[in-house]
Write a structure and sequence with these properties.
This protein has helices spanning 2-26, 45-53, 64-73, 92-98, 111-121, 149-157, 177-194, 209-214, 224-227, and strands at 35-39, 58-61, 80-83, 101-105, 125-130, 162-168, 200-202, 219-222. The protein has nine helices and eight strands. The protein is globular. By secondary structure, the protein is of the alpha/beta class. 42% of the residues lie in helices and 16% in strands. Helix 4 packs parallel to helix 5. It has one domain (3-227): TIM Barrel, CATH 3.20.20.10. It binds pyridoxal-5'-phosphate (PLP). The site of pyridoxal-5'-phosphate (PLP) has 14 residues, from strand 8 and helix 9.
């Protein structure tokens, strides 16, 4: 049973690495400029363990309780945990205690709490700012309104314990991802002019990783293409 799951993960992982390599080459980039974060949400720690055996280093989770439990179960593995989900203020410190990278920072209220968690953990936490790609005029449901990014970035950059590393975004469901990611490229150019060292860009998922790599993604977050469909009931 677990052998066949390992085979399945190996095959799907190889296919995703091929997609990344092809997209990077098509964009005139080196394939190793794009890191794969495997999103393991809803899947058991046993899958995380198999992925680690297959060479996966970066794993992503979007729900605090599930992530915290899985990170604890896999504490013996050399993994880097990325928190990619909506962050409640009262959970932010706890997230920073196990996540080496927090990708979904979208408001200044989180900053001090993340810094406290980093201090508890005795290490620095890498921060990506999640920027909303909802078209102008739409309510920004996920991520920071691009207009609020400069202040948020400055706040993270001056907070000890946190390292401002770059941006994260999710393409809206009802729009061509290439269009949304072209807005992201513009937002990123502005952002880099103020924070030239914060070069990471986490964008692209199972369905749109090629479009994200075209605009410069350094990290793609891929769940279903590696692990299969997520269970409907959580
Ligand atoms: C679930 C999730 C992903 C992975 O999505 P897939 O379509 O399964 O590849 C990527 N990013 C975020 C923020 C997610 O919540």
């Amino acid at each position: 049973m677990s052998t066949s799951r390992a085979d399945e993960l190996r095959t799907r992982l190889a296919a995703v690495h091929d997609r990344i390599a092809r997209a990077a080459t098509d964009a005139g980039r080196a394939p190793d400029e794009v890191a794969l974060v495997v999103v393991t949400k809803y899947f058991p720690a046993s899958d995380v363990r198999l992925l680690a055996e297959l060479g996966v280093v970066d794993v992503g989770e979007n729900r605090h309780q599930e992530a915290e439990a899985k990170a604890a179960e896999c504490a013996d593995l050399p993994l880097r945990w990325h928190f990619i989900g909506g962050l409640q203020s009262n959970k932010a410190a706890a997230v920073a205690r196990y996540a080496q990278v927090v990708e979904s920072v979208d408001r200044t209220a989180l900053v001090g709490r993340l810094a406290r968690g980093a201090e508890d953990a005795g290490r620095e936490v890498d921060v990506l700012l999640q920027v909303s790609l909802d078209p102008p005029g739409r309510e920004h449901r996920f991520g920071a309104d691009p207009a609020t990014l400069p202040a948020l970035a400055d706040e993270v950059a001056r907070t000890s314990g946190l390292r401002l590393r770059g941006l994260m975004a999710v393409a809206p469901l009802d729009e061509d991802p290439a269009l949304a990611f072209s807005r992201l490229a513009g937002i990123r150019a502005d952002f880099l002019s103020r924070h030239p060292d914060a070069t990471l860009l986490s964008a692209g998922m199972s369905g749109d990783l090629e479009a994200a790599i075209t605009v410069g993604a350094t990290h793609v977050r891929v769940g279903t293409a590696v692990l299969g469909s997520r269970p409907a009931v959580q």
